[in-house]
Specification:
The protein has one domain. The protein is 63% helix and 3% strand. The protein has helices at residues 12-17, 22-33, 37-44, 52-71, 74-90, 107-128, 134-143, 145-150, 162-172, 185-191, 204-215, 218-223, 230-247, 252-255, 258-268; strands at residues 92-95, 100-103.
Amino acid sequence: MEDHGLFGPGSVTWRVMGEPILLVGGFRALLMQGLHPRTMRGVLQNSALMDPAEAWSRFARTTEFVRVRTYGTRAEVERAGRRVRRIHALLDAYDPDTGERYRLDEPEGLRWVHVGEVDSYLSVARRAGVRLTDAEADAFVAEWRCAAEVVGLDPATVPGTVAELRGYIEAQRPGLRFVSEAAHPLGLSFRTPLPRPLAALRPALPAVTVLAFATLPRWARRLYGLPATPVGDLWATATLRALHTGIGLVPAHVRYAPDARRARRLTAA
């Protein structure tokens, strides 16, 4: 039998993740990640994320990992996961709040990154108009427990339903903030150089970042020092829907990436 990796035909993940509007969800996931102080400091102290010259290449590597994890064979997923786990196990960071050094593979930080990613994809998809019933949304969260295992988490320790996802985020809120030593992502988006083939897209990067910020919960926008009003929520939802509708007018063979086209063919078969 063909190896379809972690998900496969009929999964909610394959149906959702191929939608181009999920690019906004990827940016939102990074913004959610940035509100966990130890996670953010781990990134700051071990990578060039906040160096504008390196930010895009790091985002590209993260995007490739998500692609392999979503559509790759089990062997490909295991190779990618083994590499990520090995890197995390070798790195540590310093927490100035406690005076402690900590490992980047500590479950608390990995769990927050996982939850922020799942919540971002699901939130952006539903607000953009991707059709998902409540049961399908729960199935999406449950399916991503397999993805949590790839980075070294026990699947039983991550949320398996939308309600559990929201409960976890709410419980974490008291410890979240944007650390002062980090550059603000909105400012970074104006300074990030893109590879030559993507240079024409540079004016769009700040706009995508602004939209990603607008899709965050109001409490998260406030932690970034940005306005947070119901009007902003309405604008974000309306913009996501308009973009998703407009992209839907593009022929499928152009609209979807090769992996997403293959997933759609296998699902329809």
